Automatic annotation (TrEMBL):
GO CC entries: extracellular region; lysosome
GO aspect biological process, one term: immune system process
Sequence similarity: Belongs to the GILT family.
Protein name: Gamma-interferon-inducible lysosomal thiol reductase
Principal cellular location given in the protein's record: secreted
GO molecular function: oxidoreductase activity, acting on a sulfur group of donors, disulfide as acceptor
Amino acid sequence: MAPAVPLAALALVALLALVAPGLAAAPGCDFPAHRWCSSRDAAAACQVQSRCPSLPRPAAAPVQLSLYYESLCPACREFLVLKLFPTWLLLPREMLNITLVPYGNAEERNVSGKLDFKCQHGPEECLGNMMEACLMHEAKNISTYFPVIFCLESGSSVTKNLEACLQIYAPELDSGRISACVQGDTGVALMHHNAQLTEALEPPHQYVPWITINGKHTNELQAQAEASLLGLVCHLYQ
């Protein structure tokens, strides 16, 4: 009578036949054969990636969209409210990464040693830009601040509805901290940073909203984003 073969040994033989028939361990492979397909690192070390069809694929990088805008610009508000925010709601978070830069056509000036800003639509727009910059600074997470910015930009007044929008979309945020940011040095520093980001654009921005996709701006990408942002992101996501 032939000696009994342990069940574990039979399983190992079956696994070898399935995963790596006739394949010896590659130099530098420190994993036992039954673990060659347990991870991408193990498969790479043992040079059996092509024989491990069930390996998890690395997640694709999200599409990077940056919006350079002004808080009171009608075209900016339309794109943010009707295109960008709905697209962000529809897509899984890992598909689209959004950066909002409220500054646009503003001008940074040095007045008696202090930074000051002149905005295309007047002082109220400068206030709106800084409020949204401070909101992002305080909230940190886009899931918290983007609905509030949507609320501000879709409402009757960007600068007067902060308290109401916070109560609806982010009651955990302290409006007092946002106000302190706007009235203090932090708000100025945030606007200076946005000015630097905007001035560093290549090619230089010519209008707002100015949209970059994966760090690039072309007339074609801008037109596609404004016509069908959801379709563009789905097309670009690998």
